[in-house]
Amino acid sequence: MSSPPYNALTLYTAGTPNGLKPVLILEELGLKYDVKPINIMTNEQKQDWYLDINPNGRIPALKDGDLRVFESAAIMLYVTDLYDKEKQFTYDYGTALYYEMLSWIMFQMGGIGPMQGQANHFRAFAPVYSAYGIKRYTDETKRLYGVLEIRLSKSDWLAGDKYTIADMANYSWTRGGPMLDIDMSEFPGVQKWLKRIEDRPAVQKARKIPDTGRSEEDIQKMIAGAKARVDALMGTAKDETVKDEL
């Protein structure tokens, strides 16, 4: 096996925040890559062939020749390490700015991703209505947005003075704040940062990958319907607050 880069990139992904993250850097670098959409609604990511690529059974995953990389941040780091030779969207390894960037990536991986993911679940996809779950995880998501606000109220970007994979990673989740009914006007620095990112042509293209045949408006309608379904469980036997009282 030769050393990477192999220049034979295949991305296995779906239209989720984590699925968007590696697409952003691939598009920004203008790399040639194949896309294999994974239908997470049918648990395609749990099939044996996919577990050979990502033993965790989650999207996204990347193959570059025979080499596999899984976990969204690992893919982004791999792509910049191997393909961003001019350091357009990263910093030189070992520098203070590199570790500042890495810190913000891990902030997303360990904070915003898990907390907002749980907020999304309880608000739109849970089989019960849980006022506690919705409040706990939405409040924590807002707290984390507040951490971003502290930085972005003083700087255009999270790490240093340029747009990096740290911004891409956090953007992919934070852009979904309104779907949790979070008032983004509480975070003006974050709002301006989101707009700067959304105006980038590569970002506009990335948001359409993979092509599922559904527009963002369709997805918003689907999520609104899912939230309404959860809200309809309030005050029924599937309302956890009711069950606690019985």
From TrEMBL:
Occurrences of domain GST N-terminal (ranges): 6-87
CDD domains: GST_N_Ure2p_like
Stored Pfam families: GST_C (PF00043), GST_N (PF02798)
Occurrences of domain GST C-terminal (ranges): 94-214
Lineage: superkingdom: Eukaryota
Protein family membership: Belongs to the GST superfamily.
PANTHER family linked to this entry: GLUTATHIONE S-TRANSFERASE GSTA (PTHR44051:SF8), GLUTATHIONE S-TRANSFERASE-RELATED (PTHR44051)
Protein name from the UniProt record: Glutathione S-transferase
